[in-house]
Amino acid sequence: MKIYHKGLLLLWAVMAGVPVAVMAQEEKNVAVNLSATGITVGEKVPYLEIGNLHNYYTVSGDPVRSLNLRDLRGKLVILDFWATWCSPCVGMMPLMDSLQREFAGRVQFVSVSSQPDSVVTPFLLKLRKGKKSVLPYATSDVLLRKAFPHRLLPHYVWIDGEGRVVAITSHEEVNAVNIEKVLSGGSGLNQKADQVIAYDRNKPLLIGQNGGQGDNMVYHSLFTRYGEGLKTLSWVNPELSRGTLLNLDISNMYAAVYSDQTWIGRHRMVFVGKETDDFRYQANVHDAKSYKREHNWCYELIVPREKKGMLRQLMIRDLDFHFPYADVDTVTMETMCTVLVSTGDNGMLRAKGKERKLEIGQTGFSMQAMPVIGLTSRLDAVYMQGNPYPVVDGSGIGFPVDMKLDCNISSVVEVNAELAKYNLKLVDKPFKTLMLVFRKKVGAISRL
């Protein structure tokens, strides 16, 4: 946007706050380089008046109270936007005073503040401690800030002898070497990108893009009640440093997070006492619609890459915090299981090659060069979820196997018919395995 187009400069001069163009983009929560919305590098500066000028004199020594930028043509003008509360700004004052003396006649610094004279002048007198300064300054500025919008201070605008902006920088670029470079017609100064994006402190950060897109997010933990319209999901991926649980009850949230080496389904959950009835949906106890609204939750955790190995541990910590009334832990215990047992010689199963391969579907299963647990874990986690007991490996086979089952692998009867050719069988019997035990802490209340 060229702000020196007819009528637009006047609009900026009378407006309070940021330019209309910036406000429009803020409403869209788009990151804006604020400096680029005003007079930018390469553009000529219109005849702007510097008012409320102090410490600037004519050749005869008379004070000058206002100055037009056109009166400084032929010199390199460096506008220094600053404030008394800005430590880097104040720290630059002695250096700028020194540079003004060194480059007298060729360079003109002007310090510009939006603060009133009643604040700025006493502050500078105290800062100088009686020492004379050759650095002019303007107070109560409105017009220049509109012409060169910015958010972060200090802010420097470099204008060459022809009235063209050659750089907009931070204070790191203000030194004798760079001044000589610009005076010699060179450039290459690091430009200042003054990003601004809308943020409402009365709303959660990043929700609805409040404060940005979250592209630079390092750690994020979010917990909400039931999400209308959201699908049910459990996804925990330490390699991606992220876990997401959507519209799950307490039991399924904990089960998803604890399912590391062993997948934990309904048949691996033990609920102690009626006090835990609300930890999971029960058709004979709950109304489905009201239960999900009252007892289903959404949760997400994103951790830094270096913390990915702690993802599950940190998720358990968060769940324990939000559900302090739930006492949940894994226990290896003897319980009824559907156990894969050997009924004879299993030598025919020994893998003939080393390449691992797995093919699985509702009507068949085959694997090559894989441990037997490759079968039992998938039956337990996916295909026999309706089985009353966990499916576990008790065959004692310690070598990789080749196996092919042509049957409905959700049916224990059909699977057993196929397993017989390998001298294997699924048998219901007590067996030690990993279980997830739920209890309710006495006297504990929800934080939500």
From TrEMBL:
Main location: other
Keyword Metal-binding among UniProt keywords: no
Boundaries of every Thioredoxin domain copy: 39-198
InterPro entries linked: Redoxin (IPR013740), Thioredoxin-like_sf (IPR036249), Thioredoxin_domain (IPR013766), Thioredoxin_ResA/DsbE_sf (IPR050553)
Xref: Pfam families: Redoxin (PF08534)
GO process terms (BP): cytochrome complex assembly
GO-annotated cellular components: cell envelope
CDD domains, alphabetized: TlpA_like_family
First and last residue of the signal peptide: 1-24
Molecular-function annotations in GO: isomerase activity; oxidoreductase activity
Compartment(s) where it occurs, according to its Swiss-Prot or TrEMBL record: Cell envelope
Protein's name in the database: Thiol-disulfide isomerase or thioredoxin
